[in-house]
Amino acid sequence: MIKRLHRHEPPDEIESLILLAGNYVRPSEDLRPQVLELARTERLERRMQRHLARLAAVVFLMITVISTYRETANAAAGQLFSPAMEGVSLEAEATSRRADPSWETVESFTDLRRRQAALLQL
Q1: Which pLDDT belongs to residue 85?
Q2: Least confident of 15-29, 32-46, 92-106
Q3: pTM greater than 0.70
């Protein structure tokens, strides 16, 4: 019930409507079950969102750890990210160092490009 500060003041129009409607407002019979079902549904959705967020975080961490592990394993083995490409480029450098800048160098680079193309097609 609304308490008035001064008993001698007449209630406002809205206050009087609220006072009059106080006895008429009744919740429906199915209000409680509806509210409970809505609360359950929202709780289930929030739980599912938290579960998916945790799953995404775990997947992200696993990918990060695996990629870091692979990089360190390749570095420990003396290899970089692409060991096949590195081997091909090292052969090309060795061939180009031995040869004079002539057609032999051009052929070695052409051969290198062919090998790289073959590796990329795999």
Answers
A1: 53
A2: 92-106
A3: no
Three-state SS sequence of the chain: CCCCCCCCCCCCHHHHHHHHHCCCCCCCCCHHHHHHHHHHHHHHHHHHHHHHHHHHHHHHHHHHHHHHHHHHHHHHCCCCCCHHHHHHHHHHHHHHHHCCCCHHHHHHHHHHHHHHHHHHHC
Mean pLDDT of 3-17: 67
Higher pLDDT, 25 or 38: 38
Q: How far from the centroid of its chain's Cα atoms is residue 115's Cα?
A: 38
Q: How far is CA 85 from CA 43, 72, 100, 113, in A?
A: 53, 18, 24, 11
Identity at 98, one-letter amino acid code: R
Who's near 8: CB < 8 A, 6+ residues apart?
none
